Amino acid sequence: MDYVYAALFLHSAGKEISEENLKKVTQAAGIEADEIKIKALVSALKQVNIDDILKSAVAAPTTQAPQQAPQSAPQQAPAAAESKEEEKKSGEAIEGLSALFG
């Protein structure tokens, strides 16, 4: 993940995402540069439009958050009723077991 963050940092600074620049960023952060990982990341990012991915990543969480909040409140009331029923059933089960063992 360190290399991905370094690539995002370079992108936000408007710099080219190259092996040399990634090495500089990771070394400046005190991370030992792994040549293989850096080459793989640079190669993979050549085919990717980072701006498009960032736009879609930012939009995804905001569309789901409002839908989850209203659904959680009505579900809490039945859960409380179910827990009381479970307690009653478990109490009856314990009483039944105590009858078996005297």
Written description of the protein model:
This protein is mainly alpha-helical and 102 residues long. Helix content is 82%, strand content 0%. It has four helices and no strands. The longest helix is centred in the last third of the chain and has 52 residues. It starts with a helix and ends with a helix. 7% of the residues are buried. The model has no long low-confidence stretch (mean pLDDT 76).
Number of strands: 0
Over the alpha carbons, how many angstroms does the gyration radius reach? 27 Å
Largest pleated sheet:
none
Task: Estimate the global geometry from the Cα principal axes.
Answer: elongated
User: Which parts are unreliable, with pLDDT below 50 for 5 consecutive residues or more?
Assistant: none
Please report the number of helical segments: 4
Strand content: under 5%
The oligomeric status of these chains comes to single chain
Q: Termini, distance in Å?
A: 62 Å
Helix content: over 70%
Order of helices and strands: HHHH
> What's the average pLDDT?
76
Structural class comes to mainly alpha
